[in-house]
Amino acid sequence: MRRAAASVLGGTAVFVSLLAPAGQDPVPAADSTPAFPAVNYAVAVDESASLAPEDMRAEKAAAKRIALGDVSSSSQVTVFGFAAAEKAGQRVVDPVCPRTTLDAAGREEVGRCVDELRGRKKSEGTGTDLPTAIRQGVDDLTDGSDASVPRVLFLLTDGKMDVEDSFKYGDPAHRAAEGERQLKAALKEAAAQNVQIWPLGFGSDPDKKQLDQIAAGGYQKGCVELPSASPRAHKVDGAKDVGGTLERIFAAAHCLRHEEGPSKRPPATLEIGISPLATVGSIVVDKGDPEVKITYIDPAGDKIPTTSGRYKGSRFELAGGTGTVEALKIVDPLPGTWKVKAEAPEGHRSLPVAVSVLWQGELRGAITMDPPSPQAGEKVTVTMRLQTREGYEIKDPRDYEGLRVRSELTGDGFSALALDLADNGKGPDPDASDGSFTGTVTIPDDADGALTVSATLTASGLSADTRSETGEVAPGELPVKAPLELPAGSTHPGGTVTGTLDVSNTTDAPHTLRLSVADVKDGLLSVEPKQITLKPGEQGTREVTVRVSPKSAFGDRLGDGLDLSGTFTVVDTTDDDRTLERAPVSVRVTPEPGIWDKYWWAFVAGAVVLALAVAAVVALLGLRKRRRNPSGLILQLVSADGTVVNEHRAGHGNNKQWYEFAVAEAHRSPRIEKRAHGPYAVRRSREGGAVVRKDGSRVPLPTNGQVQLTDTLSLALGGIPGQGPRPTQGAFAGGPDPRPSAPGGGAYDDFL
């Protein structure tokens, strides 16, 4: 198994394979720190009279964007303005920003010096000398610079060459022709010096033909061999189109990915996504007004410090915070949806705030050949699975848009065979757009000895990666086999997924097998046991366990869950380290559930029980209230001789269900009157009859009894209105009440 490191030299992707020593497991996919190559570039800004003031402002904004958008702190830039020298003492070029390294301080400095660009006055020369501008850019990019670093010239102009008043081009009648001749010579020199030229057309009517000629005349090889990386001319439609247009061009010229986000007036919160493949990027915010203040919030909901430094495993640099455009550069950004919060004081909210992201990443692959030791004439299946550099699966097609996969089979005894690997869900590929590219190839009949299957991934914005797997043609049926059966599983950090090896040893000697998981960051996945020994003639199954690392290994990358992938490898150490099995392993890792996720059923059951209990209590209280409610009781005043002198129907009582009343005109015309806080009160008893409250005591009132209220009057309960009780003596028909009562309660407080 070999792994590959990719670098960019002279604008061309170069692949260097690193071969693992024989007998050792393949090197993990993410065992090195990613390097992001620098780019040297120059920005030539047209200051001629053919451009309006608003076009000049758009050019300056574009120049700032170039400096802020680069992802490498080692990149360098020069910026100069140009027009034409039409009289003695005039000059074509106005140097404004000398060669500056784009670290945090350098980005701020370029943002300031770009403001020195300005439209030329008539006395300064207002023509457009394109040949001289290109020569100046080539000179800035080649003088004392490393030839292995890519060279890019951005030419910001309307494309209309005007040298008819430039005395350096000879006789006035032939100046236009001479200008064209020198332009071709300047472009030829740019191509010879490996300088790409990306023209940006400004103004109401840029010369598209001229701009296309300039783009095609420089160096044509891009940072990768993809059409998107070849120089092309682009028209900028006004100042509002500068950001998006420039960033798309900038991304293509530097092999970056560009994602354009929303645009809103402040106060507003804008969202922009960063791919899990991104290893470095810049969130670029066009504020429109320098008074707008920006806050960056990562996918975990945390505010990012605006000072340069490290935070939560990422490194940050903020540049341009005091201007109209600022950028937050992030190394190892947390993938997911970022929020950009824009706030502004009153009077500074009329212009929209736009957000976009430029990023560069590493796309890794893990390749398998099934079976790893095939026989001549046997068909094998080759699969290249896409991963991040940590070993996380990539399944969103947008993350690898424009990907090119080249694969071939080489070996002893036959010529190289090209393989067609596809992710279209057809033929040997089981699922479309799942990040696994699959194809088949038949081992030639004359194959004898070593086999190597390799695949190279190339995509704009992503470091290229080459993977290969070595095998050996089997002379016949292998005497020892150990295919893996590992069901797709989901677990939490620290959890396990269990599978089986269907082992077979047809020899008369023991064989020791070594088990491992490769193509994943160290420690994220491991296998138990690491070694098993098969007895002579053994056939059966052996249980194996794939263990996921603890939560600390994932940091903030786990989010709502991720797919972790690797390659399960079985090597027969007894048979010269012959590879018996290389099978893809995919484990869905989700966060450990919280208390609610673990015990939701108990919470729900408890809530149901509680609700039922509350309902029962409410029903009981309601029943008790209904039982106590005095409404409808017929209250009768009975004289000493047993005559009913007044009858009164009770209504609803107060909150405690007591119907309060008083006896009016007790000695002349006695009657019961409802009276709040009266001296007497009555309510029903759950045992039948009623309870009377008087003088702080509670006295039972049976349906056939009486309660003394005054010296001459008692209270009784009537049945049908107008029907009095049977005449009795005392509180009860049988005599005085023998049961005691106490102030404030007593034996009958259970009614309450």
Automatic annotation (TrEMBL):
The leader peptide range reads 1-22
What UniProt keywords are attached to this protein's entry? Answer: Membrane, Signal, Transmembrane, Transmembrane helix
Entries under InterPro entries matching the protein: Ig-like_fold, VWF_A, vWFA_dom_sf
Q: Which residue ranges traverse the bilayer?
A: 599-623
Q: Where is the composition biased (Gly residues)?
A: 743-752
Domain VWFA, chain residue ranges per copy: 40-249
Pfam families according to UniProt: VWA (PF00092)
Write out the ranges of the annotated region (Disordered).
Answer: 421-441, 721-752
Q: What is this protein called?
A: VWFA domain-containing protein
Supply the source organism's classification.
Bacteria, Bacillati, Actinomycetota, Actinomycetes, Kitasatosporales
